[in-house]
């Protein structure tokens, strides 16, 4: 990284006001990319340097960078560092901007998309259920129950649950869109974990979905997924609206 780029980066990377929330780091890093301070192919500062500049723990930086890697904004290369990726598809670009711009005014749009995609995936999962897929759902719920005090582990298990259903639809486009939705969710939905009842309700809602899929009840499975997505959206709205 050149001296001039380091200076500009240093001017834009400052301590964040809510250091415990990785999405604040995500916003700061993506601002640098959107402003073209970091361009495709550039290596970003090390995890250690970012932690010092933001005045946060390295684990917070690591989670933020991981989210950007999952979305496809950054490319993590073992032993080399993290690099800014070129936007290679409109879907990725759209997911990136949604992740940045999601707010109360367009939350309903995101929930609509989730319902359209994930409810249909759930219908197909109930029709095409397999022992392996049901085991995946059961294991993810068990992991969520076991990690209710660990936000990161809980989110990983939550994500695995939804991805298993997307994969069970046996349509690579549904799976791709479902993965993109989960990538956005990894940035925003953990904010709802600060609502005390969120994790317990999420587990209960996931269990209802899994039981309906296991029973092969297509309509009940679809209804359970729809109810879960709407409820999750309402919980996120509470946070975004500052309640």
From TrEMBL:
Keywords: DNA-binding, Pyruvate, Transcription, Transcription regulation. SMART domains: FCD (SM00895), HTH_GNTR (SM00345). It comes from Labrys monachus. The keyword rRNA processing does not apply. Pfam families: FCD (PF07729), GntR (PF00392). InterPro entries: GntR_C, TF_FadR/GntR_C, Tscrpt_reg_HTH_GntR, WH-like_DNA-bd_sf, WH_DNA-bd_sf. This is GntR family transcriptional repressor for pyruvate dehydrogenase complex. The keyword RNA-binding does not apply.
